[in-house]
Amino acid sequence: MSAEPRINDRIRVPEVRLVGPSGEQVGIVPLAKALELAQEYDLDLVEVAANARPPVCKLMDYGKFKYESAMKAREARKNQAHTVIKEMKLRPKIDPHDYDTKKGHVVRFLKQGDKVKITIMFRGREQSRPELGFRLLQRLAEDVQDLGFIESNPKQDGRNMIMVLGPHKKKTEAMAEAREAQAARKAEAKANPGRSQNAHEADDEDETVEAPAEATAEA
């Protein structure tokens, strides 16, 4: 069954409850009269409530209505926030440099409004020391507490220990801030036309790094 409403000559009922172009109630009129009014106004007769008795029809520019509806739907999809879970893998005896690198990724993901699944991987005898992984997860949670919180407490899953961090900032807020930052960079570039091409290329590279589709890293 088509989702498109019936319009004009496709409407097959003796009479309709008519709504005018500005939303005013015209009342119940014969279909022929409603079609005549549509021609006078150079508009379409559109059935907006087919199950009513009699059906409700409105005088409107159907082509314009469809276009505006499509644009609204497109804008809604553009602003829709999809929940994304990034993943970061660490070893229980990770060295300080690698820890700082991994923590940097977690910070970036949380700033983007994404959740982060932290996985501690145990190998060999490390499996008998789960407290090492627990302490590492607690340390990481404390280091990023300004940006995120523990959404799922550390738990053992086979040879791994898993914890999920949730962002304090909503995804929609992060998206809005990212758009504002991008607009600010464009305004700055326009105000400083002498800026080097290399600087522009560096900005492009930064933007690419800032929004990876997936992030699964292993220490």
TrEMBL record:
GO terms for cellular component: cytosol; membrane. Residues 173-219 are annotated as: Disordered. Residues 84-167 form the Translation initiation factor 3 C-terminal domain. Its main location: cytoplasm. It is found in: Cytoplasm. Residues 7-76 form the Translation initiation factor 3 N-terminal domain. Pfam families: IF3_C (PF00707), IF3_N (PF05198). Keywords: Cytoplasm, Initiation factor, Protein biosynthesis. Transmembrane segments: none annotated. The keyword Zinc does not apply. InterPro entries: T_IF-3_C_sf (IPR036788), T_IF-3_N_sf (IPR036787), Translation_initiation_fac_3 (IPR001288), Translation_initiation_fac_3_C (IPR019815), Translation_initiation_fac_3_N (IPR019814). Residues 173-189 have a biased composition (Basic and acidic residues). Coiled coil: none annotated. PANTHER family: TRANSLATION INITIATION FACTOR IF-3, TRANSLATION INITIATION FACTOR IF-3, MITOCHONDRIAL. Monomer. IF-3 binds to the 30S ribosomal subunit and shifts the equilibrium between 70S ribosomes and their 50S and 30S subunits in favor of the free subunits, thus enhancing the availability of 30S subunits on which protein synthesis initiation begins. This is Translation initiation factor IF-3. It comes from Streptomyces scabichelini. The gene is infC.
